[in-house]
């Protein structure tokens, strides 16, 4: 839970134990801004801070579903300059993500990887309960399993579908953990 600001200290702790890690990041935004309102740490900057501290193995960073607003005229440039693979949302439209995830698994190899899923990676038609909705996102059928962030059910003034979707995604995440036995 929480926005991606929380990911920064988590990755500090993970990298302290494992060294630089890979990252699979599903989101509408790259979260690699430099500052906002003069602050270097906020929900749109964590992955830039992680690069600066050497917490990420940049050759094993994949950002999926990226689209939407940006304060930069070339919003993918920083990521691509670092060696990240950026998969814009339009490359995901109207197709299964299974082939993409097979490529991502190969890219991650057998080294530690952190997986993060921002709820705004989904189209707000399915999950309006986020503080940063962006149109033209992924569908629930395309996404399965990861850490979920930016879920904010009070913003879902309809029937609670964001909370329901979030609960189902979290259930699926728990079911795929190593050692989990299905009844």
From TrEMBL:
Alphabetized Gene3D superfamilies for the sequence: Ureohydrolase domain
InterPro entries, A to Z: Ureohydrolase, Ureohydrolase_dom_sf, Ureohydrolase_Mn_BS
PROSITE patterns: ARGINASE_1, ARGINASE_2
Pfam families associated with the record: Arginase
GO biological process terms on file: putrescine biosynthetic process from arginine, via agmatine
Keyword Hydrolase in annotation: yes
MF term (GO), any: agmatinase activity
Record key words, sorted: Hydrolase, Metal-binding
Family assignment from sequence similarity: Belongs to the arginase family. Agmatinase subfamily.
Identification of the protein by name: SPEB protein
Organism: Corythaeola cristata
Gene it is expressed from: Agmat
